[in-house]
Amino acid sequence: MNDARWMAVALGLAERGKGRTAPNPNVGCVLVRDGRIVGRGWTQPGGRPHAEAMALAEAGEAARGATAYVTLEPCAHVSPRGPACSDLLVAAGVARVVAALRDPDPRTDGTGFARLEEAGIAVESGLMAAEARRSMAGFLTRLAKRRPHVTLKLATSLDGRIALSTGESKWITGPQARAHAHLERARHDGILVGRGTFLADVPKLDVRLPGLADRAPRRILLSATGPTPPDWERIADIADIRHLAGIDTLMVEGGAKAATAFLRADMVDRLLLYRAPILLGGGKPAVEAFGLAALSEAHDRWRLLDSRLLGSDRFEVYERN
Amino acid sequence: MNDARWMAVALGLAERGKGRTAPNPNVGCVLVRDGRIVGRGWTQPGGRPHAEAMALAEAGEAARGATAYVTLEPCAHVSPRGPACSDLLVAAGVARVVAALRDPDPRTDGTGFARLEEAGIAVESGLMAAEARRSMAGFLTRLAKRRPHVTLKLATSLDGRIALSTGESKWITGPQARAHAHLERARHDGILVGRGTFLADVPKLDVRLPGLADRAPRRILLSATGPTPPDWERIADIADIRHLAGIDTLMVEGGAKAATAFLRADMVDRLLLYRAPILLGGGKPAVEAFGLAALSEAHDRWRLLDSRLLGSDRFEVYERN
């Protein structure tokens, strides 16, 4: 029971690094002794210090005999940028390590756990693994599929439209939903829009939230032709997202053509839906045909993870099955 | 506090008459003495007996000194089909009457309350009035607007489609949502479909639920031309729903053309949305353009009343503001 509670704290800390640690995973760590937190850490912008190093630095001598809750197996490889976290945990005298996930990075992949066990530290793995996989989806997708984890964001009316036939799209959703969408931007390494959306809106794709203005993700334009605007990167084809080094989480923000291209390639891992309580009738649909031949192909693809109201708009998160 | 609890019971009983009492309102009544229910009634199929008469018959002598909770002002007019409920309540020796709504029917409209008060019965009105208005929306809309209360039912994908471009539409939603839609049919006096849906599906519009097979509503075909199929009624124009005697609640079930016509005329009072967790991309949109010139016209029309999951589909009820 308590283990899950502390791991939830570590997962919460891990969120702080989201969108700032690629190509490193955004890890969270909490050190607990006698039922109290003695150190907290999360992967710092750019990837260093690691979560464990930060938590141990905060705990100091209090780390001795503590339990470390980490969302990912502590690393076992020494790098020019810092020592291996498993060595740091041994040196600090930690008594027990509870990890959510084994690190699939071939440089670690079990050797972190082995080093801890050799030093007499009790090791457990797998607690809240599903949550941790979601937390580090960018890192894990890059390792497993050699491409970023892709989130498709759609802001629609009840009848699935993203603009009136006049092109008017500001605004479908209300201020709370739009603020939430800005927060989601801050959690991604990159944001992509298609050429039509770029030309129609020239979107800034910045993060208009107090204290998060510096968290604007990299801006990616999907366009086979045309110049690359200043402060933007351009890719000609969706397959090129593989080559976006340092972008492990990508949010596709618009428009229907880009959304459709990613769905057709089955490259959408997660859906964010913001749905306003309005009917539009005509206008631009959120998604165009992406190659379904039968309804049976449409079912059982998406699993609901979250659903709530943001003002009068419904926000839902789906994950690809 | 207790008054609201008993009125909620009366409103629950009122639901039993839905779809079977037009042109009479579906009223609920509960008689309470010393904190216990001594009689329960609801408007019977065809409109008689009234809820109060049924509850008083059940209570017998126990009605003396009781409080009657009724969702509508007891009627004051004697009809060949039965005595006035306000007279029955007086004769039974009821001590107090709590009503949710005054009856706007000009034959009553306060005279029921007056008759009770003249007999020394304490009368209160207005408790849970909003709920009662929803419960008797058919009766009240017929009186106020001289047409049935119209519910538009839509079963869509997340992107607002009701069929693939191949026409395949069975099924978008799952079995729990479809069973719920059958229950909603039983609560309506009539169901309407347009010509396209009729020709494509020849829908039965029956109620395929155990014990409710006899609750099939009247079937209305919206079609300017063509023969009227057996067991169907046909209207040429949506304005003709005014002339459907005995239909005070109408559910529009399909397809996009019919939905669009009712929305264009601003004749949709309530929306039932069943939304499956699937994306379809191409295919038939649920609603076509119905004349919005700007997004501002789309906002603040619909108020969310209910939202829940039916299996993996989201069910939502909206009411026209």
From TrEMBL, chains A, B:
Pathway the protein contributes to: Cofactor biosynthesis; riboflavin biosynthesis; 5-amino-6-(D-ribitylamino)uracil from GTP: step 3/4; Cofactor biosynthesis; riboflavin biosynthesis; 5-amino-6-(D-ribitylamino)uracil from GTP: step 2/4
EC number(s) per entry: 1.1.1.193, 3.5.4.26
Family membership: In the C-terminal section; belongs to the HTP reductase family. In the N-terminal section; belongs to the cytidine and deoxycytidylate deaminase family.
UniProt-annotated binding residues for NADP(+): 155, 169, 171, 197, 201, 255-261
Entry binding sites for substrate: 185, 205, 208, 253
Taxonomic lineage: Bacteria, Pseudomonadati, Pseudomonadota, Alphaproteobacteria, Sphingomonadales
A Pfam family assignment: RibD_C
Segments forming domain CMP/dCMP-type deaminase: 1-124
Residues at the catalytic site: 52
Organism from which the protein derives: Sphingomonas trueperi
GO BP term, example: riboflavin biosynthetic process
Function summary: Converts 2,5-diamino-6-(ribosylamino)-4(3h)-pyrimidinone 5'-phosphate into 5-amino-6-(ribosylamino)-2,4(1h,3h)-pyrimidinedione 5'-phosphate.
Superkingdom of this protein's organism: Bacteria
Note on how the cofactor is bound: Binds 1 zinc ion.
Name under which the protein is recorded: Riboflavin biosynthesis protein RibD
